[in-house]
Specification:
Strand content: 15-25%
Keywords: Signal
Pfam family, one: NMT1_3
Organism: Paracoccus benzoatiresistens
Mean pLDDT: 88
CATH class of the largest domain: Alpha Beta
Protein name: TAXI family TRAP transporter solute-binding subunit
CATH superfamily of the largest domain: Periplasmic binding protein-like II
Shape: globular
InterPro entries: TRAP_TAXI
Radius of gyration: 20 Å
Oligomer: single chain
Number of strands: 10
Helix content: 25-40%
Order of helices and strands: HEHEHEHHEEHEHEHEHEEHHHH
Length: about 350
């Protein structure tokens, strides 16, 4: 696991570069997502449509991915939301215990909602049939500050796989590089189906998704299956692993200055809409909304207070949306923080448990 200390270094370096805009900037709301062909950006657009129905604007920002999104939520002005992988959160929490710089970097970041599982895609030449076959090959692992970069690096390190080259190439650029014979395989962490593979014109005779069945990885990550025919080139189911995507926010002070109050309200409004209109998202949004489990809070992280404010049955959303009616309270679960216990009560009161 010592090979993974680059994460702490990368986070501190990213924080040093991420100076926020001037305090006089006009107030706005934004969610940090990912690349233009990924699932994050489609999820962000679905959330923006919810707010648009209430006359509010949410800017959907492309990014390198999870680590950049985490840092943006922490200190980028007018950026109240970011979608982040749970393995990023796990390793940040691990390093924060021994590294004061990392502890400062994660201070104040909270969960808004757990979202869905993201499958780890490994697209490769047809003669590569396992992680072990990547030894001596040219493998694209995503760009720095992306979740794909983190997960791919961990997968290779944990399994002791040694490619000849680990190339820092974004998935959208890695696909044409693979087709041109410039690399042999590439990783992409994204909720299936992802547009890059669904619309990428991939020849199933030349390329395929490689199963990821290593026992060490299955003890660290959730197991997953990409069903047959998820993509045009993929006639059979593919076994693998997955990470959880989460919508993150910051712990704004609802009694603080104007920016803090407005940001807290923005978090509360979107939280209210996601909860009360989850069925609408599942029917009209990206297919991954159907896999969202709002109860699946990862250990070690708390729900934001502004989130819980928006989930209260008596919350007044400035919108024509009907307010949810309360249901009987659930018995509290032992060992949970007050914030997470309140979150579960509001979820159960609205959509049941």
């Amino acid at each position: 696991m010592s090979k993974t200390n680059w994460l702490a270094t990368a986070l501190v370096a990213l924080l040093a570069l991420a100076a926020g805009p001037a305090a006089t900037q006009e107030f706005g709301k934004a969610v940090m997502t990912g690349g233009p062909t990924g699932t994050y950006i489609q999820i962000g657009r679905d959330m923006a449509r919810l707010l648009a129905g209430c006359g509010q604007t949410l800017e959907v920002i492309e990014s390198a991915g999870s680590l950049e999104n985490f840092v943006a939520v922490r200190q980028r002005r007018n950026t109240q939301f970011g979608i982040v992988q749970n393995d990023v959160l796990e390793y940040l929490k691990t390093y924060s215990a021994d590294d004061p710089a990392v502890a400062r970097a994660i201070y104040g970041v909270r969960i808004a909602f757990p979202l869905y599982d993201e499958e780890v895609h490994l697209l490769a030449r047809s003669d590569i049939n396992s992680l072990a076959d990547l030894a001596g090959k040219r493998v694209a692992i995503g760009v720095e500050n992306s979740g794909t970069f983190l997960t791919a690096s961990l997968v290779l390190d944990l399994t002791g796989t040694e490619p000849a080259e680990r190339r820092l190439i974004a998935p959208a650029d890695a696909l044409p590089a693979l087709k041109a014979g410039q690399i042999d395989a590439f990783f992409y962490v994204a909720g299936a189906p992802t547009a890059l593979f669904a619309e990428g014109g991939i020849d199933g005779e030349q390329f395929h998704l490689v199963p990821i069945t290593d026992e060490t990885l299955q003890s660290v990550y959730d197991t997953a299956t990409i069903p047959a025919n998820t993509y045009p080139f993929q006639p059979e189911a593919v076994s693998g692993i997955a990470v959880k995507a989460l919508l993150m926010t910051f712990e704004y002070d609802m009694d603080g200055n104007s920016y803090q109050r407005q940001s807290c309200k923005a978090v509360s409004d979107l939280s209210n809409l996601i909860l009360t209109r989850l069925t609408e998202l599942q029917q009209t949004g990206h297919p991954k909304w159907k896999n969202v489990d709002l109860q699946d809070i990862p250990a070690g992280w708390d729900i934001g207070n502004c989130v819980n404010e928006g989930l209260r049955p008596d919350y007044q959303l400035e919108c024509t949306a009907p307010l949810a009616t309360a249901a009987p309270e659930q018995a509290e679960e032992p060992g949970e923080s007050d914030a997470n216990r309140a979150y579960r009560e509001y979820i159960c009161a609205t959509i049941g448990c």
